Amino acid sequence: MLTFLFAALAQLAAVPPASPPPPLVRMASPPEPAAAAAAKVGTDREMIRSYERHGPDAGRGRLIEAVWPQIEALRAHHAKRLAGIYFDEDGALVLRLLGRTPVANTQLETAAGALPVRFRTGWLLTDREVMQRMAAKLPELRRLLPDMTGAAVDERSGRLFITYPGADARITAREGEISRLIGAPVWIGVPGA
After folding, report:
1. Which residues fall within 8 angstroms of residue 137, CB to CB, at 6 or more apart?
2. How far is residue 73 from each of residues 93, 104, 114, measured CA to CA in Å?
3. Residue pair 69/31 in contact by the 8 Å Cβ criterion
4. Final residue belonging to a domain, choices 101, 123, 145
5. 7-22 confidence digits (pLDDT tens)
6. Three state DSSP letters for 146-158
């Protein structure tokens, strides 16, 4: 039995490491063919999986695959203003935009169906800028919140969500202080709560 275990471990060790996924390709105008868009990995695939799990109809993944080139075209068109992007609870695609200039809601049409698109304006920072500001202040943030376990930008609100196990009123009362330190809105809490 032990010989079998060592043989199995030796086979696993002989397997070459998986190559890293190709870098995320951003679409240029005009839109790339649907087949190329469907072959993308990384953030795009995660966004589609999120829609399949949280959209109004879990079987609508085909719709997202079909409109993906149009989503990429929206991203490219609004690149200078794009603060964040997500799928809402009702399945609509929402683009959070910097500034106050309004953009009319629309929908993306394909043979697979239509995907509503909503634009929300008024954000001051992109998700990336929030994370960069947090990274620049990480040593001081760790000093103020030594038990924090992570941080991410909430896709819907654009706030920095700092995970802190057992966050209580004493800890959450520091949100204003941390927001001023980072220069971005902050929410401290327990994941899943």
Report:
1. 181, 182
2. 13, 16, 16
3. yes
4. 123
5. 333 343 343 433 333 3
6. CCCCEEEECCCCC
Q: Up-side HSE of residue 40: CA atoms within 13 Å toward CB?
A: 23
Domain that holds residue 176: 127-189
DSSP category for residue 117: E
Same domain for 62 and 134, yes or no, is no
pTM, 2 dp: 0.66
**Amino acid residing at 17:** P
Give domain status of residue 3, yes or no.
no
- Two structure tokens written together for 95: 């683009």
**Which DSSP category does 60 fall into?**
G
Q: How far is CA 42 from CA 25, 160, 173, in A?
A: 10, 22, 36
CA distance 153 to 185: 10
- Kindly give, in sequence order, each residue whose CB lies less than 8 Å from that of residue 89, ignoring residues fewer than 6 positions away: 54, 56
**Within a 10 A sphere around the Cβ of 48, how many other Cβ atoms?**
20
Query: Percent of the chain, pLDDT > 90?
Result: 58
Which tokens sit at 152? 């991410």
Question: Which tokens in the block code for residue 21?
Answer: 């996924």
pLDDT in the model for residue 44: 55
Question: 42 and 24 in contact (C-beta within 8 Å)?
Answer: yes
